[in-house]
Amino acid sequence: MGGWRPGLSVAAVRNRRVRDRGHRADLASEAAIARSAPVTTQSETTRSDRRPPVSEAVISARGLRISYGDFEAVRGIDLDVSQGEVFAFLGPNGAGKTTTVELLEGYLKRTAGEVSVLGVDPEHADPDWRERVGVVLQESAFEPDLTVRECLKLYGGYYGSPRPVDELIELVGLTEKADARGASLSGGQRRRLDVALALVGDPDLIFLDEPTTGFDPSARRAAWEMIAGLQALGKTIFLTTHDMEEAEHLADRICVLAAGRIVGEGTPQTLGGRDSARSEISFAWPAGVGRADLPPTVLSALTDEHHGRAELQSHAPMEVLGALAAWAHEHGYELGDIEVHRPTLEEIYLQLTDGSK
Length: 357
Ligand code: ATP
Prior knowledge:
Elements: H1 14-20, H2 27-36, H3 47-50, E1 57-68, E2 71-82, E3 86-90, H4 97-104, E4 112-117, H5 127-131, E5 133-135, H6 148-156, H7 165-171, H8 187-199, E6 205-209, H9 217-232, E7 236-240, H10 244-250, E8 253-258, E9 261-266, E10 279-284, H11 296-301, E11 302-306, E12 309-314, H12 317-331, E13 339-341, H13 345-353
Parallel strand pairs: 3-7, 3-8, 5-6, 6-7
Antiparallel strand pairs: 1-2, 1-4, 8-9, 10-12, 10-13, 11-12
Helix pairs in contact: 6-7
The protein binds adenosine-5'-triphosphate.
């Protein structure tokens, strides 16, 4: 895979939120402790022997409710995330995404519902479970005086079966900096090290919270490649993002949350009935041509005429386009500026979340 380019960061914005919310200020240190928690039995037992088998549903929630005092932030949601999936969690600001994710990571308690993450209720998570869950933090405990390789070796020593250090370094694109001290890394390189640290215990489930916010376009592409690479390794990725292109590019499934409720779920192609939504076709009228000249199939799809253009809508755009093409060919009309528009993911998302404001 492509590896990371300079300036890239796949760190979540979680710590920014942590700073915003005093009550969550210990999240980073808890996660760092969880990540560095020594495995008590470092016997010959292999990791796969130690672990309970991964069921197909890596995350399963039913009737999940989470309240802050009198305010119910999550209002009865069901979630199912399968092994190896990239699952994108979308929703407007304040929808309840972070609240849900923090519960799934074992940092918040629910007020109602059933939750299983990797076969365990996250409220009763133990160090073994935490080892299987990777959370990418924006700032983590990288060691300024250690080289990248030494730092990963140190952290890897806390796990029963850490990922090989060189493989990790390559995965996050730090090969050239493997022997550079932490203090000498650029901001983007430190963040790559953060990701490597989150992956050192070889987690099965990785939470990525707005992983590419603020990235330049090539850094964003490189991060997507890395996420796709993690999926190719069989990891399950729970991705929270506001970036529709990112969701469309990466997600196997998308779930849209608004005001604490799920308002849409599906693949990027089927979400909110996108696959069966009406397509829009428009073209400029050829000189001297009007609606009376159109063949019946095209005329029946005509919805409007604006600025010299015919506007059509259809659930069967190929049928209309076929009739339109035959008609234009027969009469020698070029229709060079014809446009066909299928609803974008962003348009579907806005429709789904419109009522939540
Ligand atoms: P964003 O996209 O802005 O990060 P989000 O979907 O992650 O939003 P949450 O952070 O989960 O939203 O917040 C959901 C709701 O819960 C919001 O209305 C928020 O104000 C409220 N909330 C979050 N934390 C607390 C808290 N500690 N006390 C009270 N209300 C809270």
